[in-house]
UniProtKB/TrEMBL annotation:
Pfam family name, one: CTP_transf_like
Signal peptide location: 1-25
Name by which UniProt lists this protein: ethanolamine-phosphate cytidylyltransferase
Gene for this chain: PCYT2
Pathway terms, separated by semicolons: Phospholipid metabolism; phosphatidylethanolamine biosynthesis; phosphatidylethanolamine from ethanolamine: step 2/3; Lipid metabolism
Organism this protein belongs to: Esox lucius (Northern pike)
Length: 376
């Protein structure tokens, strides 16, 4: 039963949420739509290492990332890897929710077997076109094609090597092209207009691989005003590549849009924002403050200062979030632990494939038995 201080229907999601991306956020959005109050259990580093392999982010980073997703009401730190009825009851939850893939223990057991048997399990659809495996593969490969053309043979060969076990692909792990739709943006967007008395704050950047450094910055920006309305300007991929160089961005602008919209500190996103924060943009959105972090400000194509206009108006400020983590740092973590991550994903793939084959044999056996009975 739901405790009296909770709303009518309480749902529990248990997860690692390593490399939190818009696919995870979409799972939480769907879960929240099934009830009134969403509790998210996040596993420790030790539990993830035992059952899956080394996490990319620390548990403290993962706890904070999940708290920043706007559909989450409460998180449980150090949640057990296997979800039991006791876990649901302890946190006063009616059901647990998971995606339509499968999560296995180190022994290859379904972590939701008990709650499924008791009818306290609900399922949501996995978001096509993104996975932690895919993102890690992009970082290891870092080709200019990774965010625009998944048909690229080098990329496909690399992701096959990275995520594929010796006996083929699991249906729950793999790479497919992400296709943006207007409906998906609507589902993620708040839909709220600025209200009288709101302080309209504008920030701009790539926000690539949306991570805890971005969250800390946006939280610091959000706290600058009593009634903040934070608008994030996202630069197009070509613009990001111009000033970031190498083979950035890792995520394309459509993926970055959903990642930023899922953050509870963000009210609106400008997709393909101009690099220079000029008069037209400031007047159109009636911007009160323009904020930049402590990272370097790269000049515009004509070598001018992209923040010249807000500085002229006296509305430009820099904010120190206290977190120096960058997308470069995350890529470096992946590269330094490349062999561990490759082994982790191949092991995960092999376990999933074994379960999938067993499920297929079970279905085939049931169909065969039904046909035999019908023949008699």
């Amino acid at each position: 039963l739901v405790m009296t201080w909770y709303p009518t229907l309480c749902l529990l999601v248990m997860t690692c949420y390593d490399m939190v991306h818009y696919g995870h956020s979409n799972q939480l959005r769907q879960a929240k739509a099934m009830g009134d109050y969403l509790v998210v259990g996040v596993h420790t580093d030790g539990e993830i290492s035992k059952h899956k392999g080394p996490p990319v982010f620390t548990q403290a980073e993962r706890y904070k990332m999940v708290r920043a997703i706007k559909w989450v009401d409460e998180i449980v730190e150090g949640a057990p890897y296997v979800t039991t009825l006791d876990t649901l009851d302890k946190h006063s939850c009616d059901f647990c929710v998971h995606g339509d893939d499968i999560t296995l223990t180190v022994d290859g057991e379904d972590t939701y077997a008990e709650v499924k048997r008791e009818g306290r399990y609900r399922e949501c659809r996995r978001t096509q076109g993104v996975s932690t495996t895919d993102l890690v593969g992009r970082m290891l490969l870092m080709t200019k094609a990774h965010h625009s053309n998944l048909d690229n043979s080098n990329y496909q060969q690399h992701t096959d090597n990275f995520g594929k076990g010796p006996k083929g692909h699991s249906p729950w792990t793999g790479v497919s092209q992400f296709l943006q739709t207007s409906q998906k943006i609507i589902q993620f967007a708040s839909g709220k207009e600025p209200q009288p008395g709101d302080t309209i704050i504008y920030v701009a950047g790539a926000f690539d691989l949306f991570h805890i450094g971005h969250v800390d910055f946006l939280e610091a920006v959000y706290k600058l005003a009593e009634k903040p309305y934070v608008i994030v300007g996202l630069h197009f991929d070509q613009e990001v590549n111009r000033y970031k160089g190498k083979n950035y961005p890792i995520m394309n602008v459509h993926e970055r849009t959903l990642s930023v919209l899922a953050c509870r500190y963000v009210s609106e996103v400008v997709i393909g924002a101009p690099y220079a924060v000029g008069k037209d943009l400031l007047d159109h959105f009636k911007v009160d403050l323009v904020i930049h972090g402590k990272t370097e400000v790269f000049p515009d194509k004509d070598s001018s200062d992209p923040y010249a206009e807000p500085k002229k108006r006296g509305i430009f400020r820099t904010v120190d979030s206290g977190n120096s983590l960058t997308t470069d740092d995350i890529v470096q973590r992946i590269i330094e632990n490349r062999l561990q991550f490759e082994a982790r994903n191949q092991k995960k793939e092999a376990k999933e494939l074994a379960v999938f084959e067993a499920m297929k044999r079970q279905v085939e056996g049931a169909v065969s038995g039904a046909s035999a009975r019908a023949a008699h």
